[in-house]
Amino acid sequence: MKLFWKYLAVILIAVILGVGSFALTIRFPHKVTIVSNGAWETDLSVGSPQTNMYMRARVALLGLFALNKSEAVYFLARKDSKGDPLNSRCNYRIEGKDMPARWWSITALGGNYFLIPNEANRYSCNWANILRNPDNSYVIKMSAKRQEGNWISTGTKDQGQFNLNLRLYKPYPVVLGKPESIELPRIIKEVCQ
Amino acid sequence: MKNWLKLSLITIVLAVIIHLSLVIGLPSMVMYIAHWKMAKYAGGVNVVMHSPPTTAAHPVVNSSPDILYSSCAFDLSRGPLRFRAQVPDTYWSISGFDAQTNNFFAINDEQVQSKTLELVLVGPNQSVKINERAQVVKAPSIKGVILFRTFVPTADKLAGLIKTQRNAICSPYR
Asked: Smallest Cβ distance to A49: which of B58, B63, B104?
């Protein structure tokens, strides 16, 4: 009987360690293949059969049906440009210019990487529908409360942490060659409640 | 002490096995479930399902609200399949995902010479003789998913693009 409890404990601890370490590698992917650019991160091996097994598992869970880099490059931001986690209690401003791709979009995602439910159905801004300044730059406001102009909803204030997904479709060669050097939008925190 | 060391070693080996099983097996498992769900909603395999504009209710993680999706859970066990779609005047693509979630091909609107895409999908050990102008793509697995993406640039274009989206079909290639 004593032996039974011993082996049961071994199995339970092994399951906790195995599942826990797996969850950690998904949540905090290995930095070797990840490229950072300001608040944004990307992995150009996403979607490719040559990607490593950890990235494949991560994509299966968080970005199923991601295209390979010749068709689309995906940048993810979990923090603002100062390094603070994005949180729906705060209002943000995204400032940027057109990016080197045939078209692009910026989408807000919840902590579970699904779209954030909101009554206005405002989940994203894209290359075609964005309102630009005379110098072709743009500002996107992000908040729980609706705003005029370019606005992405962050759901309700108690939504908590959220993420941003920047998609570059048909990226230009510079994106594939030097993703760390292209000019990507800045994410600026304004007021928090 | 010896017994304690033995139990620790067994625990670590078991934990490593569980960890690696999850890492290696998860993509196939996720794809199996996605394939099964898509086939269920479409009314079977090898049927194109046209999704409405993406909202928070969309069942696929990290999907784009700027894109109209059509999907087909394919099964090539009975032979090659033909895909036909009208290509709109906006970004459009057809892409294939194997049983491991890998994106094994993508063709976009700029790569289609006429306004209609004709594509024949064949399995890993299948071949096909075609007499028409169609692209042939070899799938690395018998089962997988084909996805059509149509970029909706502005809301006023939506109705017209939905009309075009609904022309995409999948049928057995004879």
From this structure: B104
Q: Tell me, what's the pLDDT at B103?
A: 95
CB spacing of B64 vs A17 below 8 angstroms:
no
Instruction: Quick: pLDDT tens for B78-133.
Output: 999 999 999 999 999 999 999 999 999 999 999 998 889 999 999 998 988 887 78
Question: CA angle at residue B30 from B98 to B21, to 5 degrees?
Answer: 100
Please report residues of A whose CB lies closer than 8 A to that of B11: 10, 13-14, 17
pLDDT value at B24 more than 80: yes
Q: Which domain holds residue A109?
A: 67-192
What's this model's pTM, rounded to 2 decimal places? 0.89
Position A109: which residue type?
L
The count of structural domains within chain A is 1
Domain-embedded: residue A135? yes
Q: What is the CATH number of the domain that holds A105?
A: 2.60.120.600
Query: Contact at 8 Å (CB) between A139 and A185?
Result: no
Asked if residues B126 and B80 have their Cβ atoms less than 8 Å apart, the reply is yes
**CA B32/CA B26 separation, integer angstroms:** 10
Cβ-based contacts of A114 with chain B (< 8 Å): 56, 58, 61-62
Domain at B42-172: CATH architecture: Sandwich (2.60)
User: Does A132 or A27 have the greater pLDDT score?
Assistant: A132
Check: CB of residue B102 under 8 Å from CB of residue B55: no
- In this prediction the ipTM stands at 0.87
